[in-house]
């Protein structure tokens, strides 16, 4: 059964006890953006948190999105992101706790912190007014609206983009965290998935981590993001078509197929990590629960506990492939909010363009323009090498 719903602590409505002994503390930033602290089980941090007393400019207007009539895909036009922070020196890390000389985004020392992105691709407006967030003009009117044909179609890019700080430390990644901290982040992903899925107009919630400048990372601070889309993304739309073609039990059969094959990386009680049969990238690994769960909210405490250890082992194995950290995109695919929840199983797709210690895979014309991929490394060979690297790391306590 999924984990029990969080309970409010009666003495303070801004504090919520979550599963695993983790505590959520709700507050806001100086410009009204939500800031949520997630305290580790048994945290040593004080209960009191500093208020954000910066004098901030008003939030940018919600971006627009335009429909590409050749593909049916929606393209967000977010000019406000052009001026976002780009690789600042460590003393001006915008995700570190505030100091007298660094007016960062997070006022207090924290374990894990989540806040609304200052330069979002989506939002802050929603499909209808809620709390202090206004309803957007020209907002999408549900899934049927965004699928309609026609030239020159535009809609307001409603939704929300959040930043997830894994640690107050200025360098690192998810893989450098302790198992306890990883468990806190997983609980934050679950809690935010529930909250964001309930926002008016949100159709899909996507937690992810970009790691490495080669991927385009603009901050070295250990962090990820969560995007909440006003439509079902193209990748998931394609997956839903495949499930319709292959059968509702597709993920169950994938688990059985990969578990019996030569590409298994980690076979744990609740989770299976493997290199997929048709891997595209030089380094590619999938991680999936053995029991069906549409998203993080449907995981049990036992599954979350094991995921913290298994995910760290996988990421540290990826880093053990070479003498320097490996760039990657860690993409947590979840079922849409209102469709496919009985058939789309949440899973991680971790990909890296690193094909050698000093070489990256760049998409050639056939891959970038036509989506017709060529893989230079056979998946079985990639699995053998990554499995040895994971074994060299050992199990995470």
Automatic annotation (TrEMBL):
EC number in record: 2.7.7.12
Protein name (database record): Galactose-1-phosphate uridylyltransferase
Record domain Galactose-1-phosphate uridyl transferase C-terminal: where: 248-388
Major enzyme class: transferase
Listed Pfam families: GalP_UDP_tr_C, GalP_UDP_transf
Pathway: Carbohydrate metabolism; galactose metabolism
Annotated source species: Microbacterium amylolyticum
Domain of life: Bacteria
Gene Ontology terms for molecular function: UDP-glucose:hexose-1-phosphate uridylyltransferase activity
InterPro entries: GalP_UDPtransf1, GalP_UDPtransf1_His-AS, GalP_Utransf_C, GalP_Utransf_N, HIT-like_sf
Domain Galactose-1-phosphate uridyl transferase N-terminal, chain residue ranges per copy: 94-232
Cross-referenced Gene3D superfamilies: HIT-like (3.30.428.10)
Family listed: Belongs to the galactose-1-phosphate uridylyltransferase type 1 family.
Catalytic activity, as annotated: alpha-D-galactose 1-phosphate + UDP-alpha-D-glucose = alpha-D-glucose 1-phosphate + UDP-alpha-D-galactose
Keywords assigned: Carbohydrate metabolism, Galactose metabolism, Metal-binding, Nucleotidyltransferase, Transferase, Zinc
Cofactor(s) annotated in UniProt: Zn(2+)
């Amino acid at each position: 059964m999924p984990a029990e719903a969080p309970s409010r602590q009666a003495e303070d409505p801004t504090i919520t006890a979550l599963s695993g002994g983790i505590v959520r503390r709700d507050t806001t930033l100086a410009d009204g953006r939500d800031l949520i602290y997630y305290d580790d089980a048994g945290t040593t941090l004080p209960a009191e948190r500093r208020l954000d007393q910066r004098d901030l400019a008003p939030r940018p207007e919600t971006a627009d999105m335009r429909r590409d009539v050749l593909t049916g895909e929606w393209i967000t036009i977010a000019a406000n992101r052009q001026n976002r922070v780009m690789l600042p020196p460590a003393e001006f890390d915008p995700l570190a706790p505030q100091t007298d000389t660094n007016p960062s985004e997070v006022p207090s020392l924290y374990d894990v912190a989540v806040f609304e992105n200052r330069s979002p691709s989506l939002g802050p407006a929603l499909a209808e007014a809620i709390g202090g967030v206004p309803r957007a003009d020209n907002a999408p009117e549900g899934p049927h609206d965004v699928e309609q044909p026609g030239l020159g179609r535009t809609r307001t890019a409603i939704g929300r983009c959040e930043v997830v700080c894994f640690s107050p430390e200025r360098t690192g990644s998810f893989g450098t965290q302790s198992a306890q901290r990883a468990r806190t982040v997983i609980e934050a992903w679950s809690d935010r998935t529930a909250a964001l899925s309930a926002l008016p107009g949100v159709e899909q919630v996507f937690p992810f981590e970009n790691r490495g400048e080669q991927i385009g990372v603009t901050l070295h601070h250990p962090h990820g993001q969560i995007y909440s889309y006003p439509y079902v993304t193209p990748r998931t739309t394609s997956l839903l078509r495949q499930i319709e073609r292959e059968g509702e039990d597709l993920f169950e059969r994938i688990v059985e197929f990969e578990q019996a094959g030569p590409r298994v990386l980690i076979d744990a009680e609740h989770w299976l990590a493997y290199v997929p049969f048709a891997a595209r990238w030089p380094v590619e690994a999938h991680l999936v629960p053995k029991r069906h769960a549409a998203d993080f909210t449907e995981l049990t405490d036992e599954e979350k506990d094991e995921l913290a250890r298994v995910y760290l082992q996988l990421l540290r194995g990826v880093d053990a492939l070479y003498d320097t950290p490996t760039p990657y995109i860690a993409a947590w695919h979840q079922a849409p909010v209102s469709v496919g929840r009985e058939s789309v199983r949440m899973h991680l797709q971790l990909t890296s363009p690193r094909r050698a210690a000093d070489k990256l895979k760049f998409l050639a014309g056939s891959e970038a323009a036509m989506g017709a991929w060529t893989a230079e490394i056979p998946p079985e060979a990639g699995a053998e090498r990554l499995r040895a690297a994971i074994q060299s790391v050992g199990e995470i306590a």
